Amino acid sequence: MSTNDFFRIRLSTIRPLEAIPFDIFIYIDSKMINYLKQGGIMKTEKVVSLHQKDTGESFYVGMKDKQLYRDYVKSSMNSVTISNNDKAAILRESSIALLEDLFENPDVGQALMDSKPIVSDLLKFMEIAPESISNLISLSGHDFYTYNHSFDVSIYSLGLGQALGFDKKTLEELGQSSLFHDVGKRNVSLDILCKKGPLDENEWAQMRMHPQFGLKILNEQPNISEAIRAACYEHHESWSGGGYPQDISGHEIHPFGRIVALTDTYDAMTTQRSYNVPMKPSEALTMMKEKLSGRFDPDMLKAMYSVLFKMKAAS
Ligand SMILES: [Fe+2]
Ligand SMILES: [Fe+2]
Fold it and tell me: Quick one: 224 and 302 in the same domain?
C-alpha cells in the first residue's frame, strides 16, 4: 500500500465515545500504521489531546473508505447534539482535508467533479445555519495556504452570489470555480509561493502568470464551463482596467471574475501571509472602498458590505 491509497483527515471531525466506522492510520517513519480499528472508540481525553498534536499531516483513512468517511461527517451535520458552530468547524475541517487531496490530484477534471459535494454541503449549511457562516471562515492569523485561501474565497463568493440573487445551479458553479480560481499556482514554484518577504521582479512576473497557467490546466479538461474558466483567468482583472493578464474592464470581465476579484482581495487582506500583518475586516473594507474602489464592480462591492455585515453581526 502506498500513501496514494490514503487521504488525510482532521481529528476534529472524529466524534469521541462512538464506534468509528473506518480504520484510522498514522504515518510514522514513512509507514502507514493502523492507529484505530474500525468499530473502535476514542475517549474524549484522547481526542482532545490528539487535537493539539493534529497538524493535519498525520492522520489518514484508506481511499476505499472515502465514502464512509463522508457519510460519517455528514451524520455529524444532522446531529442534534452538535452545535451549529461546531458543525461549521467540522465542515470546514473535512472540506479542507478533501481540498488538500483535490489540489494534489493530477486529474483536475476528476477533482472538479469531486468538489461538487463539498459545495453542495456548504450551500446546505449556509441555508440551515446562516448565523454560523462566519465560523466557516478560518480565524485570521493562520498562514496563507492555498487550501485555506481557496476555501475562504469560496465561502465569501457564495455569500456574495446569494446576495446578488443567483439561483442554486449558478451558486454551485460559483462555489466550484472559486475553489479552483488559483489552480494555476500549481505551476508557480513553491519557493515563490512560500517566500517570506516581498517578491522581486522576476518572482512577481512568475506569480502573475498563474491565471494563464490555470487556464491552460482547465483547457486540457473536456466540458469545463466558460464561467469556471473565467473565474480562474479573469480574477486579477480590474473593473477600471489595468489588471492582468488581458487588461479588460467593466462588464467585459465575466461576473465570476468580478466576484472572485473582490473576495480574493478581501481574503488576502484579512489573512496572515508570511510577511504581513492581517488587516481587521473593517480596515480592509475601508481600504477597498476608498483606495481600491475603482478595481471592483461597484454594485458587487456594495453587496459585499452587506454580506460581511451579516457575517459579522452573526458572529
Ligand atoms: Fe490569484
Ligand atoms: Fe487567490
Answer: yes
